Amino acid sequence: MKIAFVGVKRKYLELPKEYIYNFNRYHLELPFYYARDGENDVTITTVDMTVSSDYFRLIGDGLKHPKFLEMQMESEFQKSSEKFDVVIHWRKWFPELYRPEALNLLNCQDHSFSSEWKDSVRQAMNAGQLYGILCFPTWHQRNLHQETGIPMERLLAGVTLGVDTDIYRPALVKDPYQMLWASDPGRGLTNASLLAVELFQRDKRFRLHVCQPDYAKGILPIRHPAIVECGNVQNGPRLWELFNSSGILPYTSTFSEPSSRAHRQAQAAGCLVLYPPFMGTPSELPDANVNRIVRPVAEWRDIILNQVESGSWKTFGELARAHAISENWPVQAQRFNLLMNKIRETKNA
Prior knowledge:
Elements: E1 2-6, H1 17-28, H2 30-36, E2 41-46, H3 54-58, E3 69-73, H4 74-79, E4 86-90, E5 103-107, H5 115-126, E6 130-135, H6 139-148, E7 155-157, E8 175-182, H7 189-202, E9 207-212, E10 227-232, H8 237-245, E11 246-250, H9 261-268, E12 272-275, E13 293-294, H10 300-310, H11 312-326, H12 329-348
Parallel strand pairs: 1-2, 1-4, 2-3, 4-5, 5-6, 6-7, 8-9, 8-11, 9-10, 11-12, 12-13
Helix pairs in contact: 1-2, 2-12, 7-10, 9-11
């Protein structure tokens, strides 16, 4: 398929050139892996620069097939008569980037929406321009339905976020006393830090390694020997090593949110992942406590101590790794392709 991801407003000139590849691969994710693992011809529109498709073949592992990931100026995309099978609008509807010949979708990764956002989506849907929204399953899909009134069958769940299980994989030695925070500090870092202090008081081997994404400028809420400040860590070897060697990821989110990269990466790395109920990733899946633990944060100190002392954290990590492989990018990309082909066949029938 020929796919365009449009409306990406991040200024590439603000990124170090050597980071563009990783930004597309590990921050945007969908276009890169839908090209690589779905063997699709994918274009990303940009607002300030383009990079030759050869760039993606020369850096990192490149693409595994003759198709390629292309970057095109948004202004050029608007003037072009190039035909696409699917056009995915990045997190909001962009009427000026609508392509009538294509299946137009919106990729949604947010949990609350402005009146302007909802109005534009409804108008595009009612006009027959927007076919549907790519979203996360269960809570996120239901919340979008409640907020917009869009029929559930047009909220296309479960083809939005995979994980690279070749990059995130258990190290030969994983340390159950090494915990990791690798997310926005506003998602509950204070609670994770307090938990680390409590665990340190019981066993001084516990440490919480705190690294924040490149866009976050937060400071540590607590300074204590239990907290290891790693600073802003871009997605690359240093971050991968932290995930792959850590034993536990306490995801103390303080609000409902569609999904988190950190928990999927930690599962792929074979970590024990903990969530508070009804927070973090609000899906029925973790509530079964099969490959991650969903309990109130107040109980986590004793849960972690028991898991580490008994060695059960390893079992959770093995189950988490198996689950991550079952939902990794090759699986997600093929699932996306099957869904898009089915919808296009139905529309053209």
